[in-house]
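Methods: holo model generation. Sequences were used as deposited, without trimming of termini or removal of tags, and paired with ligand SMILES retrieved from the corresponding compound records. Each pair was processed once, and we did not select among multiple samples. The sequence and flavin-adenine dinucleotide SMILES for this entry were:
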Amino acid sequence: MKNYDVVIVGAGASGLYAAYNLPRELNILVLAKREEDLCNSSLAQGGIAGVYESPDDSPELHKHDTFVAGGYENDPVSTEVLVTEACKDIGKLIELGADFDKTPDGDYHRTLEGGHGKHRIFHHADCTGAEIEHTLLRTVKALPNVELRDNSLVCDTAKTSTGFSLLVLKNGGYETINAHFVIFATGGIGRVYKYTTNSAIATGDGIAMAYRMGATIEHLSYIQFHPTAFNNRHTRECFLISEAVRGEGAYLRNCKGERFMHLYDKRLELAPRDVVSHSIIFESQRTGSDEFFLDITHKDPEFIKKRFPMIYKNLLTQNIDMTKDYIPIFPCQHYLMGGIKVDTYSRTTIDGLYACGECSCTGVHGNNRLASNSLLEAHVFSRRAAADIAEKAKTTPKDFEEHTFDLHEGAPKMPEGNRRKIRGIMQEDYFVIPNVKGLKSGLEEVRKIVDDLDNTRYAIDSDYVVARSLATCAYIILKEAQDICAGSEKIPNMPIFEKPE
Ligand SMILES: Cc1cc2nc3c(=O)[nH]c(=O)nc-3n(C[C@H](O)[C@H](O)[C@H](O)COP(=O)(O)OP(=O)(O)OC[C@H]3O[C@@H](n4cnc5c(N)ncnc54)[C@H](O)[C@@H]3O)c2cc1C
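and the model returned the structure below.
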């Protein structure tokens, strides 16, 4: 089939949950560019935050913590929606079979992470994302109106008089697919960096396609660097040591084995992520070393193994026993707060085009996401996108116009090296503390790459699509960062510290 009511680009939590919430009478296609569960959702460890059947907690308190972490740059309306509707979606995930951990008395075990004033994070040991992703995959695969295709890369999207056409590359062949409504649920941009916790699919494809179609992109320079990625500087994908490890009492130590967070922020190891990442960089400047460790050896070994089974096993493969050894860590790229600008129903500035999950900018995270709020955002706002489409689809004409894409037939392959160059620039000029002086030349270099990829006829293969997405996202990030610096004395990404007494 090539005509659908709705095409959802992305099979992570947000894409699948949108498919689940759309009316059963609509024909829906969900596309994943690689394996069906290869995505950031599957990697989430800590959990999903939200107030659900918690008498000692409230959406008001959750909102307060979200605002503090987000530097009060959060959108108040969408944040209100996030915290008040959390109970609906956490309840729904439980109903669909997501197996969140329980305490011995049968209540849900709610854990704590940096920035949260209450225990409000539902989790499945330390692999919550995989549990949610597989629950949703099971659910969506059972729906007769939803078709799920893996290894299907959307290379381009065009607006038509009846909706959209998408150019899809699968097994080396192209297909044009038409839809009345499109939801981009394409995830983050981590692979624009040399070191990231993100999965290989996180190349910003949806953001770049939306940008090329003229959609508004907002706050792309609001990038979160997780303070505790496992420090193995040999692989691009850095294994995350979840914030929940600090939530359970782990200490941060410098190259001398000393705790240091008290020098920078009175919330110590449980300060929000941006504060902790900045503190690590300040401490590395003070000590002249980038050796840092996470230490949870003072906790009961059996508790550690049961609470963090995946992290424990993964570290053992690196010859680190976290019950006895310090864990080497360093910040790396982790999450994108900005993205395709949407309203509270995930509507972009282009009629019929929706965006949800990490590729969207709902504004709920402000300039720094509170831990475990992104899985929540992915669910709340994809459900709302589905509700909006359900209403509009009632009056949508049934015909489809098809756009003819230029397939660049016979064109040569793009030269190698673009992606490496972009990653080098981003790592150098726009890491935890931006290199304000380097932004201009970095932006100029990236602009040249974008111009070349947009204006030269290269073969449209996955290398080209990814390079063009990375270049476009890097360009928007650096341009926005440069504008922030030029307009004021403000340094992008600077967190609000709570100074020690
Ligand atoms: C290591 C790690 C740990 C995390 N831990 C937590 C946590 O504990 N709690 C929390 O709330 N958040 C956490 N996050 C963040 C959270 O997991 C993500 O923000 C969220 O899951 C993103 O979901 P998504 O549906 O937007 O995107 P993803 O789950 O990344 O899915 C993106 C989908 O888009 C598809 N796609 C992309 N481009 C194309 C294309 N061109 N054509 C076709 N398909 C395409 C991909 O194939 C994939 O199916 C973590 C992230 C990481 C990386």
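The chain has a mean pLDDT of 95.
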